[in-house]
Amino acid sequence: MEEKKRVTLYTDGACSGNPGAGGWGAILIFNGFERELSGGEAYTTNNRMELMAVIKGLEALKYPCKVEIYSDSAYTVNAFVNGWIFSWDKNGWKKADGKAVLNIDLWQSLLKLTKTHEVEFKKVKGHADNEYNNRCDALARGAIPKDSK
Predict the structure, then answer these.
(1) Is 97 in the active site?
(2) Cα–Cα distance measured from residue 54 to residue 109, given in angstroms and rounded to the nearest whole number
(3) 65-71 β-sheet, strand order
(4) What is the pTM of this model?
(5) What's the rounded Cα separation, in Å, for the pair 12 and 69?
(6) Which of 36, 83, 127, 142 is catalytic?
(7) Mind listing the pLDDT tens digit for each residue in 66-97?
(8) What is the pLDDT of residues 61-73, one digit of tens each?
(9) Does residue 12 have an active-site annotation?
(10) Of 103, 99, 106, which is closest to residue 19 (Cα–Cα)?
């Protein structure tokens, strides 16, 4: 069996108002090559954009890969590192307090993608000295629709 290709994925989301107009940015790094992705929505939340960045990055991969995902979103990273997403899935997308998980649609998409790819989430400090995180932030902010109200 062929070994999975190793890919690095940096992601970030941004919102102008929360909720409000938002954008996401992602950078895929493989074998010295970099591919930048970004997009935006007229009305969304910061957490949705953080999740969308990871989803769009993973969706851009053409075959199953081993992916190190770097994000400054504790919301996104902790759901996997602490195993919350697996509990939510097992408990019908309810949190420990019995309330419904927010952004179920995106969590379900992301969980499905993590079954295709072997992923490892790593938290990075936002707005610090990580050039890729800073670039993703710029991509996300640049993708926020300007004509949204």
Answers:
(1) no
(2) 10
(3) 33-44, 20-30, 5-16, 65-71, 118-123
(4) 0.95
(5) 11
(6) 127
(7) 999 999 999 999 999 999 999 999 999 999 89
(8) 999 999 999 999 9
(9) yes
(10) 103
